[in-house]
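Worked Example 4.2. Consider the chain below.
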Amino acid sequence: MTTVYRLARHELRLFASLALWLVRRTQGTAGGRAFGYARGQGATMLGLAFVCLVETVGVAVMLRGVPVAHDVMLVLDVYTVVFVVGLHAACAVRPHVLTPDTLRVRYGAHVDLRIPLTTITAVRRETRTTHEPQADTLALAVGSQTTVTLELAEPVVHTSVLGRRRRVSVVRLYADDAGSLVRALTQRGGGSSPCPDRPG
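Applying the procedure from the previous section yields the following structure tokens:
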């Protein structure tokens, strides 16, 4: 797949997520238990969308005497607002999903990683606010935080939006209710007993 195709597909997923969000539906949760993560970034995304909206109005006023530039910038600014809202919508309608044999870890339209429960050797509730890049670790921070750490016996392949593939054996993710996710994984045999929350 070309880069342009991958980016176009990603944006289509954002707009589809926005439609689902408006009708209060989720995607890919049938047959499993959903664990949300969008709440942790709701205020930030709302603030960003508001700033973009204010910029849209300001630029429209400044360029009202230049019709062509006004129309072009208005389209671009409105698209930016919709894009930002779509990013949040994608996170809201695409939660993590736990099925009897798999944990589907997601982050908006960017990440969709399926982890067999049999490969999880340890799961713990662990709040981390710093995430140094590591070749074998995937960190899906929300609001600069991850709250659950998974250690895997066998690496799984993560594919980025642009198609870059890498094998990861540690996955750090954020969940609005990290304790419930850790307990659910432990009950289904996905790793060791939950540990007390500890900062990282």
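The chain has two domains: 3-30+38-93, 98-199. The longest helix spans residues 67-93. Compare this with Example 4.1 before moving on.
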